[in-house]
Automatic annotation (TrEMBL):
Keyword Signal annotated: yes
Name the record gives this protein: Cytochrome c554/c'-like protein
Keyword tags: Signal
Source organism superkingdom: Bacteria
Pfam families: Cytochrome_C554 (PF13435)
Record domain Cytochrome c-552/4: where: 184-222
């Protein structure tokens, strides 16, 4: 009987120990998860010390907005290159860009993609260049960047959506040219944040581990580490803390959020680099355009929608109109005629403005206000060469100079 009791006691002790060990492991594991939850991974750090944690952290409380934003051109304007987002074809017969003095062949090797270069009438061998980053959502086209250690360059082959073909990248000659260095001013409209590893804004060296691709929530609302941690720790709090409240900004501050990318090249850097500006600050303290002092300077339709909009009578005669009056940056609006018509009508019904176009003209333009008053216009800044025998072709981009145009300006 004593032997049985000793066995029972020993087994009892072992069970208790196993239960204790299991409990310890469980709490250790969950403690780690809890720690990670309240201390989200820092993806990059702004120059002012604020931390980016990525737009996925916004999904917990803003799922509908997050899911809608995934379909916007903003979100898809920059990405790591892979088969899901490179629009150009790598299939035999459609993977060649043939120019006067050089031919480029796009080939896939395993899960990676490469540009192969053959200079005509020369035996020079040029190593293949890897597609590392996709620039552009593909609505009009895409360009591609390649890493050389921590230096970033543009590939000579780009993709042009209207012809579904490879084209010579804008600004490249029809012969082989050395890869073009990519500065932060080039990245700023396609990348939420990039960390430069050299002080000069003319450099093309970046920290690969601190790049946030596409234009996501934190580009306009600011780095969100503090915001996310606070609301995870205080789920009952209804007032947003530690984030930029757009509705609390004045009109110029709201315009500056969009003007970061939509006000021309802003090639005169006054402070820091293209990623130094922080949402809510005065953008003109950081950069400006060469033509800012010349009111008669003709604005190109590519890149300076801000300048065109602020030159419009609609803007001048309104005390509140800004980009978000007509655009919801969280949602894909392209092609939604009814949506944009409603924006125009919301203002122009007040004065009983009546469209003077004929019924036939309205039908031709699909009853779209912007087709007549904001026609697509050839850009003089964005031009591509389709092949060795073609002239340069302009991108047609919708002007944001809202006005009354002649019928010969109507394009879509």
């Amino acid at each position: 009987m004593a032997i049985i009791n000793r066995k029972f006691f020993r087994n009892y002790i072992m069970v208790i120990m196993l239960l204790g060990l299991t409990t310890l492991v469980f709490h250790c594991k969950n403690g780690t998860k809890e720690s990670e939850y309240f201390n989200p991974q820092v993806l990059a750090t702004h120059g002012n010390g604020e931390h980016f944690v990525g737009s996925k952290t916004c999904m917990e409380c803003h799922r509908d907005i997050y899911n809608a934003h995934l379909n916007t051109a903003h979100f898809n304007s920059g990405a790591i290159a892979d088969s899901s987002n490179i629009k150009g074809s790598f299939k035999e017969g459609t993977n060649i860009l043939d120019l006067n003095a050089v031919e480029f062949q796009m080939l896939k090797n395993g899960e990676y993609f490469y540009q192969h270069t053959k200079i005509k009438n020369r035996s020079t061998e040029i190593p293949p260049s890897k597609f590392d980053i996709v620039i552009g959502s593909g609505v009009r086209g895409q360009s591609y960047l390649t890493w050389d250690n921590d230096e970033l360059y543009q590939l000579q082959a780009s993709y042009y959506t209207p012809t579904d073909s490879w084209v010579n990248s804008p600004g490249y000659p029809t012969y082989y040219d050395e890869p073009r260095p990519i500065r932060d001013a080039c990245l700023k409209c396609h990348i939420t944040f990039a960390k430069s590893v050299e002080p000069s804004p003319q450099g093309n060296r970046f920290d690969k581990s601190q790049m946030i691709y596409g234009i996501d929530c934190e580009r306009c609302h600011g780095p969100s580490a503090k915001h996310v941690v606070f609301h995870r720790e205080n789920p009952e709090a209804l007032e947003a803390k530690f984030t930029l409240k757009i509705e609390g900004l004045n009109r110029q501050q709201r315009l500056d959020l969009c003007a970061q990318c939509h006000s021309g090249p802003r090639s005169i850097v006054l402070k820091g680099n293209s990623f130094s500006y922080f949402p809510g600050e005065d953008l003109n303290q950081y950069s400006k355009n060469v033509d800012n002092s010349n009111p008669d300077q003709k604005l190109d339709v590519h890149g300076n929608q801000y300048g065109l909009l602020t030159s419009s009578e609609c803007f001048k005669q309104s005390a509140t109109m800004d980009c978000s009056t007509c655009h919801d940056p969280h949602r894909k609006e392209r092609g939604n005629t009814d949506y944009f018509n409603s924006k125009c009508i919301s203002c122009h019904t007040e004065g009983e403005t009546v469209c003077s176009n004929t019924v036939m003209d309205k039908h031709i333009k699909a009853n779209s206000c912007i087709s007549c008053h904001m026609p697509t216009t050839p850009s003089q800044a964005m031009m591509v060469q389709l092949d060795r025998d073609s002239l340069e072709t302009s991108f047609n981009i919708r002007t944001h100079l809202i006005a009354i145009y002649n019928k010969d300006m109507w394009r879509d």
